[in-house]
Amino acid sequence: MVGASLAGAQAAQSLRRQGYEGRLTLIGAEAHLPYERPPLSKQLLSGQWERSRIDLPMDEGLDLDLRLATRVTKADLRTRQLTLEAARPDGRRSPSEYLGFDGLVICTGAQPRALPHLPEHLEGVHLLRTVEDCLAIKEELAASPRVVVVGAGFIGCEVAATCRMLGLDVTIIEALRTPMVRALGHRMGQVLGQVHLDHGTKLRMGTGVTDLTGDRRVAGVRLDNGEVIEADLVVIGVGVAPVTGWLEGSGIRLDDGVVCDATCAAMGNAPPDGHPAALGNVVAAGDVARWWHPLFERSMRLEHWDNAARQAEVAASTLLTGPNGARPYAEVPWFWSNQYDAKLQFVGTAEPGDQVEVVEGGTDDLRFVAAYGRKGRTVGALILNRSARASPYRRLIAQRAAFPPLPE
User: Fold this and answer.
1) Residue 386 burial (CB < 10 Å; 0-12/13-18/19+)?
2) CATH classification for the domain delimited by 115-238, as one of 3.40.190.10, 3.50.50.60, 3.30.70.260, 3.20.20.140
3) Per-residue model confidence as pLDDT tens digits over 262-296
4) At a CB cut-off of 8 Å and minimum separation 6, what does 125 contact?
5) Distance CA 97, CA 27 (A)
6) What is this structure's pTM?
7) Superfamily designation of domain 341-398
8) For residue range 214-259, what is the model confidence (pLDDT) as tens digits?
């Protein structure tokens, strides 16, 4: 397993539970055992949870060969060999080490996208992906800084909500015109944007960031209209990119992630005179995997906790049985987000052009279900502050229910 992530931990446990008794090696670039990432923008950042609470529970007796603080720099499918490079305390490069494999689980996740046109030397500017990132931001929050969050996706909105709930001055800057628009669409993104406004968070939508001001430490964020928003702390959350650089030239097909079939078996590159075929000894799971979803009949890559856990189980099974005898991974996606006192859940998928209809409750009191329809079929549902309704709508989507759906 390359990636000491939720997907990597789940894959290791699933292999053992399904009877695999051979050698298992878990390789992770971070120095930590696998831990939960959702609390990094919420409970751990706010101080509600201690650091130890985010560690993932692991089955006893896994008999894992752990290679932490170690990066895989290359994978050779022909020789079935990985090239490893361990981190050194002095920062120098370690001599390369080679590790053979019979089966490979790719679960390296994704890394935050930076804004390359912005200066990198200023203190007080952060990305958020690792526990160290979270703790560094948390330490700075103690000084009651003016916070600017660049990016109104889910991570950015969660960080903003956490900081605002701590009583801080918070501004969100987003190049698109609506918060969380890629996941929720314009109409529902506006509803959630109003939640931020109602809690005193300032929104600057439809504007880009051109520069950061300050000498040693950040002092402000310059917008594309020339205006400068004063800031003592800047968190950049403009999306993530799958970690696949180490797979370049390996023969594994890459396209915004590791391309897989419906069973999570990785696909090889197409030969000059044929079609790409699934690899019998390589699977992928989690944020890095792009697989064919048989229910929605399209390729997709998801960056959700639930997907990483469930997909890793199927990937482990595929690795043991081979892609020809494996079951497809066809779970209806589900994710959640806590922002202020709002509990948001989304099941299924949303795409530009989907019909959206509120089928339960109303948006005024922020207790509702909004269904998403595509070609006469229910494909998604946003559930706000009605947690028990997620499961029924997940079933309706799995059953290919007509749109608008009839609530159970």
Assistant:
1) middle
2) 3.50.50.60
3) 999 999 987 766 677 889 899 999 999 999 999 99
4) 118, 212, 218, 234, 236
5) 13
6) 0.95
7) FAD/NAD-linked reductase, C-terminal dimerisation domain (3.30.390.30)
8) 999 999 999 999 999 999 999 999 999 999 999 999 999 999 999 9
